[in-house]
Amino acid sequence: MGQGDYRILHEADLRAYLAGLPDLKGLLGGEPAAWAITEVGDGNLNLVFIVKGARGGIAVKQALPYVRLVGESWPLPLSRAHYEYLALSRQAQLAPGLVPAVLHHDEALALTVMELLEPHIIMRKGLVAATRYPRFVDDITTFMARTLFFTSDLALSAAEKKEAIAAFAGNHALCKITEDLIFTDPYRIAEQNRWTAPYLDGLAASLRDDLELHVAVSRLKLKFMASPEALIHGDLHTGSIMVTDSQTRVIDPEFAFYGPMGFDVGAVLANLLMAYFASAGHERTPGERHAFEGWVLETVEQVWNQFARKFLDLWRAGAAGDAYPRSLFPGEKGAARLEAERQATMQRLFSDAVGFAAAKIIRRIFGLAHNIDFELIEDAKKRAVSEARAVRLARAMMAEPGTFSVIADVTAAARNLRDWMPELSG
Amino acid sequence: MGQGDYRILHEADLRAYLAGLPDLKGLLGGEPAAWAITEVGDGNLNLVFIVKGARGGIAVKQALPYVRLVGESWPLPLSRAHYEYLALSRQAQLAPGLVPAVLHHDEALALTVMELLEPHIIMRKGLVAATRYPRFVDDITTFMARTLFFTSDLALSAAEKKEAIAAFAGNHALCKITEDLIFTDPYRIAEQNRWTAPYLDGLAASLRDDLELHVAVSRLKLKFMASPEALIHGDLHTGSIMVTDSQTRVIDPEFAFYGPMGFDVGAVLANLLMAYFASAGHERTPGERHAFEGWVLETVEQVWNQFARKFLDLWRAGAAGDAYPRSLFPGEKGAARLEAERQATMQRLFSDAVGFAAAKIIRRIFGLAHNIDFELIEDAKKRAVSEARAVRLARAMMAEPGTFSVIADVTAAARNLRDWMPELSG
């Protein structure tokens, strides 16, 4: 991986580096000395620069050899930039127009240059501001259906699938972050956990004592580790999605690997549900975000329903993979039986997505990495109320999966919890 | 893989080759010209030589670039010798004394030299002759429990596990044989299928029309392709086991890869069940093999029960892997809840093993590769009767898994079919 040539690029280095690349220099335009370079990375792991010249702009992402959120005490391999580039390239083929175009990749520097997404904003920020995104459902469901279907056993030969799994196997340090921070730490005493204290102290303790939940999350963890169903994005929250009214772009697939499809679908559902529960904490006058909240729950339903429909349509249209060979389902009766099995497969995938969504919610409230949906609720007590509602739903989704057989069961439960008042500690 | 240096070794080449390896030359003893070299390969894929010198003997296995059973029209990569060597080495660490010692490996020649197993015979031959093997249950269950547990997520970190999966990903040509010949072809018209015609013509047709079975076998196929639970042997039938009264050796792991644990366990159960049903076809006087048949069914029960006990004991003794972290199950209550989950895990594994066992039975009766348990029954009608009984059990095991919740359900069903008279075609 040429790690010997790696150095962290500061503004001046970056300017010189880009000036040496004719295509990018031309795209930016004007004199390099006049380029405006700003470091804007607000994620947990990397440096991100926006560079603007006389003609155009670009985004430059460089991996740091440690977790930015924590510091040098937590090293993280630069190779993640390689896997991100690999995933971006594959996603660009499978879901054209739904990921940023890659303009340049430098393996040694763990650096990728992408088109500048402008005026896109991070979707999570828009959701905090109660903005609705009319393209979102169609775009995100196309992204998920196509990237998951075409990298699964339904579309690949078993040989292609095994080679693809192996190509991402080295990204295990990023998987380990998920394994620890999502599937383990929130359920035990861990130094990095934090929550809205003291109000959620009791709830945090109850999760640590909830053995049914521990079994459920351990099953999900094992599924995450050992079910390479498809190339998943691996971190598909609303902070990894950039939007405008008319465009959607999925960014930051550095956690990509072959894992369970329900993890990506669950991530989207979870982050919408958190936006829903956080919304009450952001209202200045009662009911002012009512229409937005209705849109969010409708979006939750549409995300699942349209994803399922698109995934099924791809499968029906002609699956060239080694799973479920058509030759075993001849004639009308065979077609009908295969269709029933497709529906059963989607039901299992739904159940996985519900469980993973729950895990994603709980980690954002009790684990290391929180999100601005809740964090920007300044009144800690109000924040705790929103969080407790989300956790109540998540607990049920994870430990009583049988009570959620269709997506409307999830949104109905969320709606019922909108004004529920939890007992808080402290 | 240095395939450029590969050449098929004939007797004279092999003699010269071995003479050039001081350790092996010393082990064999005497003049190379005096060594007795015999080609004894009776498997489907490779050349196997036994070489005996004045002092000792060795077994030499060389992969051919095609499927021996079919010929040069069916090429097969030599790299399988590499994966076999890799698997043998790992199994030797994990289950010492239960695989042949590797004395030499030559990657370019796709050749492995092993200790000569003498006076061991292929277990399947012994079973045809109604021989009982008192060490078998203890040895095979130790082999399976240890090789499966210690390569699973219960014993490995997620990083180690992913690297191990990747190390075997290239063995997909061998997996493909299983995918096609076990999980697909027997259920559709395929040129290479054969069965005891005309007696089983009707049964063959009914399997091709049995859509419930096609769904069940397709689920098993997908599990085989995309559930890398542990390093499995991949071909653990009674022709891959060499035995004496006091020793058991598992050979030929060239199909090894990271797959579902139930596939290995199911293979052992399936081959014992076939020995049981074939037994009636080998008796010269009614009831003469009664005691042997009782031993076989008792062995079926013990294989599962002792495997499950040993696997559980390893798990209880201290699982260092990333799955089911102990820290989530503290105290007595935690320990009890984890123990219940262990039992539930074994129940899921049992269910997998029952399904895979069924697939292994059906492929030996309707697919390309048959076995001598049935093939040595000269009277075709008698053979068809034995086979039809086995298929009736296998059909139930695959399509009605809920009716088999403990291993005694399987042996009871087998016992009930011992004298059942099927309707034959022709």
UniProtKB/TrEMBL annotation, chains A, B:
Record-linked SUPFAM superfamilies: Protein kinase-like (PK-like)
Documented EC number(s): 2.7.1.100
Class of this enzyme: transferase
Stored InterPro entries: Aminoglycoside_PTrfase, Kinase-like_dom_sf, Methylthioribose_kinase
Keyword DNA damage attached: no
The UniProt record lists the keyword Iron: no
Superkingdom of source: Bacteria
Sample GO molecular function, one term: S-methyl-5-thioribose kinase activity
Keywords, alphabetical: ATP-binding, Kinase, Nucleotide-binding, Transferase
Coiled-coil portions: none
One Pfam family named in its UniProt record: APH
Start and end residues of each Aminoglycoside phosphotransferase domain: 37-271
Assembly description: Homodimer.
Similarity comment: family membership: Belongs to the methylthioribose kinase family.
Name used for this protein in its record: S-methyl-5-thioribose kinase
Organism: Bradyrhizobium agreste
